[in-house]
Write a structure and sequence with these properties.
Length: 330
C-alpha cells in the first residue's frame, strides 16, 4: 500500500516485556514495509530481548523519561512517515494504515489517534478521561480547538514535523508539546478514532495520574507564558492597575474635598503599583516580539524540509530538455 514510502514505527519502552513482543509483531503485520524501532529507556526486564527477537531494531536512551526518548528517536531516525505508539499494547495496530493514509490524503503533518475504549473495557478510566478532557480543553482555549485527545500516545507525523520539532520536554508532557507545536505553527493536523484496550496481563502502567497530571498542567502554563506572553503580562498589568486605582480613589476624593493628601504611604504605594503595571505591559510587549521572531524561525526551519507532495511532484517532473547546439557544433 505504501511501497514508495519509508515508514518508521517508533516505540518508546520501559519495562514492557509483557506487551512489546505483540506490539512489534502487530505493527510489522499492519505496515509490512515499515521498520519498527524500539527505544528502550533503562528497562530492567527482557524488553529489549523480546523486541529484537520479533524483528525490531532496538536502541537505547539512558536519560529517563518519555520526552527524552522521543527527542532521541526524532533526532536519530530518517524516514518519510513516522508512526509513534506506546509499547504497552493498548493501541490498535490495524489502525496504523488509516493514520498514514489520512496523513497522505490530507497532506497533514500530524494525525492524532483519538482513543475509543469499548463499553466493557476499563482501560480508559474515568479519572484519565476527566483529566484528559480538562487539559485538552485548556489547550484548545489557548492554542486552538483542533485536537480532541491531546494526550494520545498514538500518532503519525510527516518528516517536516519531526525534524522541526524542538522536543524540550523530558516526561509524559511530551504529548502536550507535540500538540502545541502543530497548533502554534498552523500546521495541518488531523484526527482519526482508534480502539483503545486494556494492558495485557503482567503489564503495569508507568503513569502516575496525579503527579504526571500536575506535570502536564505545569507544562501547559509554561507553554502559555512562552507562546502568549502579551496575554499573560497584559493580564498582570490590568490586575495591578486595578489595585493601584482602587488605592488611589479615596486619595483623590479626600484631595477634592480638602485639597490635602494626608496618606502619603498609600499614595506612594499606589504610584509604585501603577509603575509595576506599566513595567509588566512593557515586558509583555518585548517578549511578544521575541516570541514572534522564534515562531518565524521555527516556521522557516519547517519550510526548509521538503514535504511529501513536493518530493512527489519533483519525481513526476519530466527531465529538462538539452539546449539546442550552437551553429557549427556537432
Amino acid at each position: 500500500m505504501f511501497d514508495e514510502l519509508e515508514i518508521a514505527v517508533l516505540v518508546p519502552c520501559y519495562n514492557e516485556e509483557a506487551a512489546v513482543g505483540a506490539v512489534v509483531r502487530d505493527f510489522r503485520a499492519a505496515l509490512p514495509g515499515a521498520t519498527v524501532y524500539v527505544y528502550d529507556n533503562n528497562s530492567t526486564d527482557r524488553t529489549t530481548d523480546i523486541a529484537r527477537s520479533e524483528g525490531a531494531v532496538v536502541r537505547n536512551e539512558r536519560l529517563q523519561g518519555k520526552g527524552n526518548v522521543v527527542r532521541r528517536m526524532f533526532a536519530d531516525i530518517d524516514a518519510d512517515v513516522y508512526v509513534m505508539v506506546d509499547g504497552d499494547g493498548t493501541y490498535d495496530a490495524s489502525s496504523a494504515p488509516k493514520l498514514v493514509q489520512v496523513l497522505l490524503d490530507q497532506a497533514a503533518d500530524m494525525v492524532n489517534a483519538v482513543r475509543e475504549a469499548g463499553e466493557d473495557d476499563e482501560a480508559y478510566r474515568f479519572g484519565h478521561v476527566f483529566g484528559n478532557r480538562m487539559l485538552t480543553g485548556m489547550v484548545a482555549r489557548i492554542f486552538g480547538d483542533q485536537v480532541e485527545d491531546m494526550l494520545s500516545g498514538y500518532r503519525a507525523f510527516s518528516r517536516r514535523f519531526v525534524k522541526s520539532f524542538p522536543a524540550l520536554s523530558s516526561g509524559f508532557e511530551i504529548e502536550t508539546e507535540l500538540t502545541v507545536h502543530g497548533l502554534e505553527l498552523g500546521l495541518p493536523v488531523a484526527e482519526v478514532h482508534a480502539p483503545y484496550r486494556d494492558r495485557p496481563a503482567g503489564s503495569s502502567s508507568k503513569l502516575n495520574t496525579v503527579r504526571d497530571g500536575l506535570r502536564i498542567l505545569v507544562a501547559i502554563v509554561r507553554l502559555f507564558m512562552r507562546e502568549r506572553p502579551l496575554r499573560v503580562y497584559g493580564a498582570v498589568c490590568v490586575g495591578l492597575a486595578a489595585v493601584s486605582i482602587g488605592l488611589a480613589i479615596p486619595l483623590f476624593v479626600t484631595y477634592a474635598e480638602t485639597g490635602l493628601v494626608p496618606r502619603f504611604p498609600s499614595a506612594i504605594l499606589s504610584s509604585a503599583i501603577m509603575l509595576l503595571a506599566f513595567l509588566s505591559l512593557t515586558a509583555g510587549l518585548i517578549l511578544d516580539t521575541v516570541t514572534h521572531g522564534r515562531r518565524e524561525s521555527r516556521r522557516l526551519a519547517y519550510l526548509q524540509i521538503p514535504g511529501l507532495d513536493s518530493r512527489r511532484l519533483e519525481s513526476e517532473r519530466p527531465p529538462a530538455e538539452s539546449p539546442p547546439g550552437l551553429p557549427g557544433q556537432t
